[in-house]
Structure formats: C-alpha cells, structure tokens
Design goal:
The protein is mostly helical and about 180 residues long. It has 8 helices and 2 strands. Helix 3 packs across helix 5, helix 3 crosses helix 6 and helix 6 packs across helix 7. The N terminus is likely disordered.
Length: about 180
C-alpha cells in the first residue's frame, strides 16, 4: 500500500497535478534528527527517483533546444557528443522524447522539439539559470556553478525554486 501511495503521489507531484506545499511543517513536522515517518520518507525517495528519470529527458530537451538555437539544427551525433554518450544511447533517448511527444525528427534533417518539448526546454533553462545565479550569489566560482547547476536543476522542488528566486530578488533590491 505504501509503495502504491509513493508511486502515485510522486507521479502526481512530478506532473503538477498535486501541489507541493510551501510549508514543509505541514508534511513532516518541525525539522529534527529523527527519521521521518515511513510514508513520508518513501514519498521523498519516490520523488527523487522520478526526478532522476525526468532529468534525462530534460537534459536532452534542453540540449536540443540549445543546438537548434545556436546551429539551426540538432543532429543525434551532436547530441551524443555534447552529452558524452554513445550514438546508440542518444538515439534511444531521443526515441523516448518522441514517444513522450516532446520531439520529432525527419530522415536526414535532424531533431526538432514539439511545442511541449520547447516548453520543457524553456522551463529547464530557466531553472538552470536560477541555480547558477544562486550559486554565484553565495560565492561559488562560475565553472563550478555551471557544473553543479546541471544536476541540481532537476531535483529542486517548485517551493525551493520560488524561495531561491525570492532570495535573489531580495538580495538585488538590497544593493
């Protein structure tokens, strides 16, 4: 029963069908060193697994959008080289984007994002920029901020991203 709740709860959160509360105390109580209740901890790990799965799709969509913007085309060989994966791996993951309605391709013409794919790439790029900006604001060097943001952007909740944006806005208004 707990596994079913974790899977569907995390899936609904990931798809935006179930709001993530901004007040963590509503879910788990005040922070403590004690372990959270089993369903709470299972939901957290379930959300992390979903984020890992979504990260792959998001990275591909973001890169394809960047290639289209900078080069006018996105070819599977370019995607593979830039992600540091083999060509068959890139082909497999691009096929996943196609199945999920995020990308299309034409023989000898490359890969194109659908409207949904473009929206996803835009959201991921915005999260990435926010993470980089936050890391720079706390003193992380640019190269490290870019590299770290590449992973962090996929795992932060909407509530966390909103808090980061508010922090940065407050910081800018202080100057």
């Amino acid at each position: 029963m707990v596994r079913w709740m974790v899977f569907w709860g995390a899936a609904l959160v990931a798809r935006g069908k179930l709001p993530v509360t901004q007040d963590a105390d509503e879910i788990v109580g005040a922070y403590s060193d004690e372990m959270p209740a089993e369903p709470t901890q299972a939901l957290r790990f379930g959300q992390a697994r979903i984020a890992r799965s979504a990260a792959l799709v998001e990275d591909y969509a973001e890169l394809i959008a960047d290639l289209l913007a900078s080069q006018g085309e996105a070819r599977s060989t370019d995607v593979a080289k830039r992600l540091g994966v083999t060509h068959p791996t890139a082909i497999k993951n691009i096929a996943r984007l196609k199945r999920e309605g995020l990308a299309t391709s034409k023989p000898y013409r490359g890969i194109f994002l659908t409207e949904s794919g473009q929206e996803l790439a835009h959201r991921v790029r915005a999260r990435h920029r926010l993470m980089v900006e936050l890391l720079l604001a706390i003193g992380v060097p640019l190269e490290a901020a870019e590299a770290d943001a590449e992973g962090m952007e996929h795992y932060a909740s909407a509530a966390t991203l909103e808090a980061f944006a508010a922090f940065l806005a407050q910081r800018k208004s202080s100057f």
